[in-house]
Amino acid sequence: MDSREEQLVKAVEIASNAAALPDANLVGQALAFLEELKQSTQESWSIGWGIWTAHRDDSLEPKYEYAPRLFGLNLVDDFLDRSIHDSPQAVEALTFLQESAMAYMQREFVASDGEHGVVFLKNKVAQTLALLMLQTYSLTSSYTFLTAALSLCTSHPDEEAGLNVLTTDLMLRVLHDLSLNLGSDVTLRSVRGKDRLQRDAVVRDEIRTHHATSIAELLWRIIQDSLQALQSPDASTDNPRRLNAHTAGSLAQVAMAVVGDYASWIDIGLIVSMETVSVLYNALDSSHAPLRYATADTLCEIVSKGMKPADKLSLIQGLGLTSVIGQLESSTRGQGEVHIELREHLAKLVGALCTELCKIAEDAVGAEQDTRDAAHSLLLTFLPLALAFLADEYDEPAEQVLPCLHMVLGLYKKTKRQAESMGVAMSAPQTEFVTQLITLVLQKLKADADLDWEDSSLVGGPASGEGDDDNDDDEQLVKFYELRKQLQVILGAIAAIDEPLVSNTIHALVLNTLAAGDPAELPWEQAEVCLYAAFCCAEVLSSVRGNKVGLGPHSYVQVPVEPGKTRNVRQSLAVYQALPPNTLGELLQHLFRSRISAHAHPVVQLQYFECIVRYASCFALWPDLLPDALAALLDHRGLRNPHMGMRRRINYLFYRFVKDTRTAIPSEFVPQLLESMQASLVVQAVLPDVQPDEDPLLKATEHAGAFDSQLYLFETCGLLMAQLGHMPDTQIMLFKAITQPLLHQLQQSVAAFGTDATNLQLVLQVHHLILALSTIGKGFPDYDAGRATEPAWIEEVKPVMEQILLALTALNRFLIVREAARGAFARIVASAGPAVLPYIPTLIHALVHQVTEAELVDLLNFFGLITHKYKENVRSVMDDVFQVLVSRIFSFMNQGVQGTDDLVRRSDTERAYFGLVNALLTAGLDGVLISENNQAQLQTVLQSHVYYAENGEPVSQRSAISVLTRLVSMWGRRDEKALAGFEQFVYDAIVPLVFQVPAKPSFDRTDAQAQLVLAELSALLKTLYTARGDEVLQFLSTVYLPGAQCPPALAMELVENIQSLDAKALKRYLDTFIAKSRGV
């Protein structure tokens, strides 16, 4: 054995067993050697081919194991695919490989057993032979290799005639790979470069010229011989090379698939003729099921071939598939799973036929009118087949025809528009098709009675309440959801053609279902589809109408339309209540007045709640419907449902329903509603099971759980109580009734933790209670300073704030408690307003020494928001906390940065700091910076802005410069608002900054971020001139610029431009000035 071959075989053996070898150095050497071979395939390909073809001296058995042989063949593949054109001996190498490949195939597949029938080995060598054939057309003008290879299909080691199954199977694999390489696969073709596409086109042309006929003849012979063998009683398997009933089916299947490969790019006359159509029919009716599937798929490829419209129409007509498919459809219908796969392939074929006919029918440019009319007529013959497959009891066939049905509806939409423009209607057959289609679509929306709905998203997720609502759905349910989405799209397309047909049909479905018996006793799948059809009705109709205002009272009544005007959808509720209901309104009245909400099945119950939430606006129109809906939401079907997964979803739906209907809920209902909710408002924190290295508090709060859905109920309490502003005594009573039990629990939990500091369940309980209390405030409207009187409930929020602060002070070492308290203040201050502000200093002192840098950023952003919103009201608060905040900010900003995460976090801190100062200045609270409390650190604050303006990241630079610009505008003027000593700071630090920042070598004038910084600097320079006038120009021209070695002429030019240009134009000049200063 050649030493290189020996080394390769040994190296592959070592690499394949690397985990079992103790010598890591040996493994590394083996891998390095193999990598070297892969990088030098111009030399190593011959070693690889030698290893692949080597056989034992005393037999035809391969000499080496699978692993080294496959590695060797990969070297050949790489050489043929990537490196052969760079080889100085490319033609010689190609000739050698062709001769050796023929000898190998003769020995291994004609005379022997074809790699023992191992499929992956046959696939691999077929891939290599396909690459070899491609290069034959690229590097030589002799195209005999493919002809010689094809001739092996009838070669035998003896005098036997007919196909050799082993060689034929190999050549079919080669032909398949060859076609894929040449771009018969659209996906592969779309990712190839221009040069590769041009090469493939040339090779396809050569094959069409020299080999297409022989390839087609061979393929049809294989299929015909195989069909005959399938009918032959001789099933002898003694000779693996002989075609018999045992081997014929799979061989014909592969041959038929290869016909499909080549149909897209060789002459259609070689694929479709009187003889071949007969063969296709016979194959479709074969006893070998996979052959039938392959034939249907090949027919798809044939009818989808790119052709001129008239030629394509003639092709489809010539195939005469209407009756053939019709017979197969009727004979396989309703036979359970026996023929389901065949029906799926036939449905795909019908989809392809309808799609192609639609393309012809709407091609006004490439097709004559007669051709388009004929396509319309022919399409009508296939549509009953499409409907038959849509009606299949299994979903797979239906899924195959949905895309073509959508395309047909798009065609009919255009046809109807054109017909109406000429004063005529759609044809009766087209109208009948659309009517039949919507009936089938609504039938198909129904779930199977045996659908596995338990613990699925159909009922809100697992009964335990743990896990994601929809990630646990099984494959069957996921496919059902996807089918429903597609069917809803079809409904929308039908509505675009005939909107009343959709609304009337859904109306009839709902009313017929409700009239079929007691709605509460209907089969669950029948009740559910009734609700689902109603649920999606508005969405379907809105998609057609282009409704931009959403569902409202106008959606359910017959709004009169004056000629030449659009419907007025913004009238008062009383106007709409006086109008008769439209089709959707009638449907909903019947549905919501029925007993369907009393259905015992969880899927129906949840779909009912989804439905009332979608149409919540109709309850304002007909408030008499409210009591039944609210009763269902509050009893065992809703908030008291024993199924935790359903409760999680219903909590949210109840919140949504109340939010959308709260103005229609009578005030006298509110106490009763809140009382009914009491049992659902009990907070009970549960620690999750954790591994020894896990933090139970972090795990309990990192994902939304049952408590997060419970928070919707607390917000709902706030929404309901907010409606009682005209009844302050009742509002206060109810507010106390909800909050006092929670406050008592909070007080008890904090006290209990004081005696048992290791009990983390108490910490989680405190976290939950703080969030629950603060979320109640979220339900109240935002604070309105313009109101004549303050809402009564705001006074009662003070004990809530006090108790939250006590809990925070006691447990501020826990991150989840700090986050809960910070979030609580953010929520409550939005609705309670200035009443909360006095508590903020205590909040800060409880937080500031415990917070992480990320928490501090959130805290600073919170202060920025309240400063912007409450302005003068926060002056005293900010005066109290500013020094503490700034000290904590600087403690973080002075720490070193390690890694990208730290860098991002530091950038956030810088932006939050500058944002806070900017918010103070914008709110007119600059006095906070120079108050008695903060005067001592003013210089540090100013210098920090100068430092980051010069040395920060571009975003921080811009923020810092922007603050300095504001300060110059406020304190730098020569008037009574000027700050003593600030003038000197302007000339010592701020003016030099304008020129030092762009003078840095790291400042890239061509960078977009640098240009934004330059814009801030020009605005600062212009503000300096506005504030100080000629004084700053004199300083620049006589002191600073001469000291910076700026040429006098350039300095004078700058001074003149500062005077005459606005900030935008000055920015452009400053760019030029910098370039000149750098000598660019």
From TrEMBL:
Pfam families: Exportin-T, Xpo1. GO terms for cellular component: cytoplasm; nuclear matrix; nuclear pore. It is found in: Cytoplasm; Nucleus. The keyword Transport applies. GO terms for molecular function: small GTPase binding; tRNA binding. GO terms for biological process: tRNA re-export from nucleus. Residues 120-299 form the Exportin-1/Importin-beta-like domain. Residues 370-543, 582-1076 form the Exportin-T C-terminal domain. Keywords: Cytoplasm, Nucleus, RNA-binding, Transport, tRNA-binding. InterPro entries: ARM-like, ARM-type_fold, Exportin-1/Importin-b-like, Exportin-T_C, XPOT. tRNA nucleus export receptor which facilitates tRNA translocation across the nuclear pore complex. Belongs to the exportin family. This is Exportin-T.
